[in-house]
Amino acid sequence: MQQAIRPVPKSAVPLFFLYGEPRRSVGPRFLHLEMLEERSRPTDWHIRPHAHADLHQIFLITTGAGRMDADGQVVRFGAPCLLTVPARTVHGFTWQTDTCGHVLTLADAYWRDLLAREPDFSSLFTAPGCLTGLAPGEMEARLTLLARELAWSAPAHAAAVDSLLLMVLVETVRLQRLAAGQARPLPGKAAELVARFRALVETKYRAGVAVEQYARLLGVTPAMLRRACMSVAGCPPVQLVQDRVFLEAQRILLYTNMNVSEAATYLGFRDHAYFSRFFTKHAGDSPRAFRTRPPLVGQSSAGLGRKNTLATTIA
After folding, report:
1. pLDDT over 90, % of the chain
2. What is the DSSP string of 231-258?
3. Structural domains for the chain
4. Other C-beta atoms within 10 Å of 66: how many?
5. Is 80 exceeded by the pLDDT of residue 252?
6. CB-based burial of residue 135 (10 Å sphere; 0-12 exposed, 13-18 middle, 19+ buried)?
């Protein structure tokens, strides 16, 4: 089905460090916290579609409302809510004027270190989303304490940052479970294996790697990998790989000027007609038709008000 990876032939989605800043490498414990208004007000409350290669983000919206465009889906939201944006997700925002909130950005390596300690974090950054039902005062209080810790180097600084970040992630993953109607925790070992599998897929999905090879690289049998994926994701591993290829195909068609043949080549398809059939099967539309159809509309929530926000801090 697929062949060796080739370079992107035409312009792709902008990859930033933080929005508007040139991409650069970050340390394994990189963590950044800033006011939402800091980047949104100077751009007239509009953030153009972009992605971050190795940074995940959580937005706490305390007042106001807006629209998030993430991988072709439109999510309308209103305060109070949390927005989650995984690394490599193509996303942009249109904010209501004077919307207030906080943006927490953490390195993928940092999240994976915490994931090794708590397998339930595996669902945190699998897809962009909007979460409601939180107690905004409690979340803002945690972020306020985190901002203070990031601004100084008091004794046990690293432990304090870890503990406060963990509480933010715990609240986020619990809201995700409530939204998904999942009262029981995901199985720990299975969730950890699927998280490692997803990370490996991220590096190889364009290379046509077979499930058996993925299993070998992960040090498990294909049967073990299949059981874990069925338990955690509700689908076999080959579907997770295909879903990742399909997601990237959507991103290319929505956010780049590659034509269909170039997209097929970039994604490793030797047969461009097969790529069109593959895409049509998953999308219900041909690649050309998908490119012109309106985006899907996702979750919305209402509620407006006004509060002060945190100062910008960085570690």
Report:
1. 53
2. HHTSS-HHHHHHHHHHHHHHHHHHHS--
3. 31-185+297-314 (2.60.120.280), 188-293 (1.10.10.60)
4. 25
5. yes
6. exposed
